[in-house]
Amino acid sequence: MQEGPLPMMARVCRDFMSVMRSQYFDFRRLLDGQIVSCWALILPRAVLLSSPMPEPDHIEPPEWEAELRHIFTSAGHDYWGQQGEGRMQHGIQSLPEVECVAGMGLRGDRYFNVRPDARGQATFIGAAVVEEIRQLFNLPKLPASVFRRNLVVAGVSPGEWVGRRFRLQGLVFEGAQECFPCVWMDRVVAPGTMAYLKPNFRGGLRAKIITSGVLRVG
Predict the structure, then answer these.
(1) Rounded to 5 degrees, what are φ and ψ at 154?
(2) Predicted structure pTM score
(3) In whole angstroms, how far apart are CA 130 and each of 33, 136, 171, 204?
(4) Angle at 170 between CA 165 and CA 173, to 5 degrees
(5) Backbone φ and ψ of 187, nearest 5°
(6) What would you report as the CA-atom Rg of the chain, rounded to the nearest whole angstrom?
(7) DSSP states along 74-134
(8) Distance between CA atoms of 61 and 55, rounded to whole angstroms?
(9) Under 8 Å between Cβ of 217 and 70
(10) By the 8 A CB rule, do 104 and 128 touch?
(11) What is the pLDDT of residues 141-194, one digit of tens each?
(12) What are the tens digits of pLDDT across the range 94-114?
């Protein structure tokens, strides 16, 4: 017999009260004949997760089998505002090494310590994507710095690591968000660049720095 609205409401309220007595819960309820499972963190606040949960701190994240091709930092923004506005003239530095500060970013970069727990403390882009753009638009000498991502890596697809922790040269990072391309890409590279970078996380990965240390090209 199908459950009526009042018994269902009473059951949901009872389950909710039991949830409030615990820190973690696995809430299963029957809706239209399907089992729906939700995980939430009750203390200190309720958070519903729509992306993969980062690995617990006690689990050692996997080490990327990757080559760090380039390190770039800039003291200020360059592509900012609407495309019709003037481009800012903040140069970009190519470095042999950079200091990564946990919870803050890359020392000397424009995003260093901009806000607590920022998602874009370091940005990654795949070297394969850079090469694809060069071939697609017949720009063999296009510098990797034009995309203004901090770290250009070969041998790994950064976009696959959203919501996951990983190590690069022993330092721990946490993939936080896709690094979306902007309309400026069509202006500084070629028309169509932004559209090409949109699918499959080609624009790169924004990441949090979990452990401090130094990254070096190589």
Answers:
(1) -115, 145
(2) 0.70
(3) 48, 10, 24, 10
(4) 25
(5) -90, -40
(6) 22
(7) -SS-SS-S-TTSPPP----EE-SEEEEETTTEETTSTTTTSSTT-TTSEEEEEHHHHHHHH
(8) 8
(9) yes
(10) no
(11) 999 999 999 999 999 999 999 999 999 999 999 999 999 998 889 988 999 999
(12) 999 999 999 999 999 998 998
Is residue 171 within 8 Å of residue 100, measured between CB atoms?
yes
In whole angstroms, what is the distance from residue 119 CA to residue 116 CA? 9
Query: What are the Cα distances from residue 61, in Å, to 58, 137, 174, 207?
Result: 9, 37, 9, 14
Residue found under tokens 């992306």: 51
Say which residue the tokens 């970009």 belong to: 92
- Alpha-carbon distances, residue 45 vs 20, 27, 38 (angstroms): 11, 16, 15
Q: Are 210 and 172 in contact (CB under 8 A)?
A: yes
| 52, burial (CB in 10 Å: exposed 0-12, middle 13-18, buried 19+) | exposed
- The token pair at 153 is 């890596």
Q: What is the dihedral of CA 61, 203, 100, 107, to 10 degrees?
A: -170
- Rounded CA separation 152/133 (Å): 14
**Residue 30 half-sphere exposure toward CB, CA atoms < 13 A:** 8
Name the strands in the sheet holding 105-106, side by side, starting at the edge strand that comes first in the sequence.
Answer: 105-106, 97-101, 213-216
